């Protein structure tokens, strides 16, 4: 029996636990994990990935995608290809992709990408993006750094989304 396509996009501030949670959830759900290494730009490869997902019905967990592009471009006041972001969002929404925003209010780690104090502004931009996207959005508080509880919260949310 074919399995329903599941596409989850993990987003969030630096050091919020996105990668650890996404990798563990991918193992739990037995779906591929994908992390695009294209930093600061809208990767041409990610557009191909969405075409592939559309054509094949493949499930995947994506560690950062077009929402990060939008957030970081706004943070750095860089030019944004809004049309491309809205097109990718439309494709993602049409495939019932869901975005999981991981966030912390306290940071112990130093990020070599952005200063720790920038995380508040980044979190605010992710929240702003949640009002723009057509995808369903989960705000996941990762302050406790409890992987088991975080995974449980995601699974419960996903089950609730299936009922809607």
Task: Walk me through the structure.
By secondary structure, the chain is α/β, with parallel strands linked by helices. The chain has a single domain (7-163), classed as Rossmann fold. It has helices at residues 18-29, 44-56, 66-75, 82-94, 119-130, 147-163; strands at residues 7-12, 33-35, 60-63, 98-103, 136-141. Helix 3 (66-75) packs antiparallel against helix 4 (82-94) and helix 3 packs across helix 5 (119-130).
Number of domains: 1
Strand segment count: 5
Strand content: 15-25%
Task: Return residue spans where pLDDT drops below 50 for at least 5 consecutive residues.
Answer: none
Feature tags:
single chain, alpha/beta, 164 residues, Rossmann fold
What is the fold's blueprint, element by element?
Blueprint: E1 7-12, H1 18-29, E2 33-35, H2 44-56, E3 60-63, H3 66-75, H4 82-94, E4 98-103, H5 119-130, E5 136-141, H6 147-163
Parallel strand pairs: 1-3, 1-4, 2-3, 4-5
């Amino acid at each position: 029996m074919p399995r329903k396509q599941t596409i989850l996009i993990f987003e969030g501030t630096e050091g919020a636990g996105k990668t650890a949670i996404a990798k563990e959830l991918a193992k739990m759900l037995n779906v591929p994990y994908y992390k695009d290494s294209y930093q600061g730009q809208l990767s041409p490869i990610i557009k191909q990935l969405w075409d592939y997902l559309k054509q094949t019905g493949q499930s995947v967990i994506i560690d950062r995608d077009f929402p990060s592009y939008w957030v970081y471009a706004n943070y750095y006041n860089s030019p944004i290809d809004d049309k491309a972001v809205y097109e990718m969002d439309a494709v993602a929404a049409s495939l019932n992709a869901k975005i999981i925003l991981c966030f912390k209010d306290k940071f112990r780690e130093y990020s070599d990408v952005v200063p720790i104090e920038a995380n508040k502004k980044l979190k605010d931009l992710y929240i702003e993006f949640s009002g723009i996207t057509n995808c369903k959005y989960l705000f996941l508080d990762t302050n406790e750094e409890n992987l088991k509880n975080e995974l449980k919260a995601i699974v419960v949310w996903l089950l609730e989304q299936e009922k809607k």
